[in-house]
């Protein structure tokens, strides 16, 4: 039995064609997935995603601190709050978890915490929420936290 051997340039062209077809297919799949995700995420949730810094409460808003500060990080489902000492950079506290959004009702559940905020674990806090431009206002409902945050990114 005689073995059939294709010329090298034919094998290279075939391989290049397969790579290009694979890349094109992957690109189409990724674009479809991105479109599905972007249409599935409500506009207010999209507006929340990012890094925020605490600047005060309604009527008492200060400038963004030059150093330190309390940072809030929000994804499409998770949140964390971290505060560091502005002089040393040492973390004062850090906690976070998941959140749910229903219209302008925002509920955060604390799922992890540093030692000094473990009293918050497994609690859910309710807020009304408003995003206007680069400003996020959380108004505590049944809790003492009413806060104004500015977007950092």
Helix count equals: 2
Structural class: alpha+beta
- Give the strand order of the largest sheet, numbering strands 1, 2, ... along the chain: 1-3-4-5-6-7-8-9
Residue-averaged pLDDT, rounded?
A: 85
Order of helices and strands: HHEEEEEEEEE
CATH architecture of the largest domain: Beta Barrel
The CATH class of the largest domain: Mainly Beta
Model regions low in confidence, pLDDT < 50 over at least 5 residues:
none
How far apart the termini lie comes to: 67 Å
Structure in a nutshell:
This protein has helices spanning 8-40, 43-48, and strands at 50-57, 60-61, 69-74, 78-84, 91-102, 105-113, 124-132, 135-141, 146-151. It is α+β, with helices and mostly antiparallel strands and 153 residues long. It folds into two domains: 1-40; 43-151, Lipocalin (Beta Barrel).
């Amino acid at each position: 039995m005689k073995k059939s051997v294709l010329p090298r340039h034919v094998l290279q062209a075939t391989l290049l064609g397969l790579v290009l077809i694979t890349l094109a297919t992957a690109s189409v799949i990724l674009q479809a997935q991105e479109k599905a995700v972007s249409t599935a995420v409500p506009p207010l949730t999209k507006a929340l995603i990012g890094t925020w810094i605490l600047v005060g409460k309604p009527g008492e808003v200060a400038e963004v601190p030059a150093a330190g500060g309390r940072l809030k990080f929000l994804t499409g489902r998770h949140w964390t709050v971290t505060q560091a000492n502005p002089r040393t950079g040492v973390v004062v506290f850090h906690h976070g978890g998941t959140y749910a959004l229903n219209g302008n009702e925002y509920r955060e559940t604390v799922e992890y915490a540093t030692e000094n905020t473990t009293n918050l674990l497994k609690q859910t806090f309710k807020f009304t929420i408003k995003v206007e431009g680069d400003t996020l206002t959380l108004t505590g409902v049944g809790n003492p936290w009413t806060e104004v945050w500015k977007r950092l990114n």
